[in-house]
Amino acid sequence: MGNTWITRAETSADIPAIRDVIVAAFPTPAEADLVDALRADPTAWIEGLSLVAADESGRPVGHALLTRCHIGDTPALCLAPCAVRPEQQRTGAGSAAVRAALSAARSLGEHHVVVLGHPSYYPRFGFHRASEYGIVLSIDVPDEALMALSLDAGHPLPGGTVRYAAPFGI
């Protein structure tokens, strides 16, 4: 199988397959439950920012989600969770879904994205250590794990504490 992925916004028909991808990718269903809770939260969910990477048959194998958060008082997006079916990991499906999500966010006029994740993975998309911009969390995390990205040069990253949507519990 080639590494060509079809990326697109989720449809209602994709929801069970997305849950399956997330459950397969993580050791517990907590992340899948988080996505369900975010999908039900009108203050967090933004239509068109839940993206899948699908195989040639159209089956979702990767997923990336952007939801509303704030950096201080500035609206921003949170990239989380991102998941790929275990048998498709390291094939580019995850990168395709993340790139599609960031592109969709730009097209909607969004300006800032934060991610709490692997410091060796997210810089490939342009993320930098958030602390360089004065961006922090209210919980202790490794400094290198919190990263931020400005989606356009006209809107530099603001400093402040990230406020996640309620389902994150942070």
Topology:
Layout: E1 6-9, H1 15-25, H2 30-39, E2 50-54, E3 60-71, E4 74-84, H3 93-107, E5 112-116, E6 128-129, E7 135-136, E8 146-150, E9 160-163
Parallel strand pairs: 4-5, 7-9
Antiparallel strand pairs: 1-2, 2-3, 3-4, 3-9, 5-8, 6-8
Secondary structure tally, helices:
3
* Helical coverage, percent range: 10-25%
* C-alpha end-to-end distance: 40 Å
Shape: globular
Q: Please report which band the strand proportion falls in: under 5%, 5-15%, 15-25%, 25-35%, 35-45% or over 45%.
A: 25-35%
Structural class: alpha+beta
Q: Which parts are unreliable, with pLDDT below 50 for 5 consecutive residues or more?
A: none
Could you tell me the mean pLDDT? 96
The biggest sheet, with number of strands, parallel, antiparallel or mixed sense and barrel status, is: 9 strands, mixed
Task: List how many beta strands DSSP finds.
Answer: 9
- What gyration radius follows from the Cα positions, in whole Å? 15 Å
Q: What's the SSE pattern?
A: EHHEEEHEEEEE
Structure notes:
The protein has 3 helices and 9 strands. With 170 residues, it is of the alpha+beta class. Strands 1, 2, 3, 4, 5, 6, 7, 8 and 9 form a 9-stranded mixed beta sheet that branches. Helix 3 links the parallel strand 4 (74-84) and strand 5. The longest helix is centred in the middle third of the chain and has 15 residues, at 93-107.
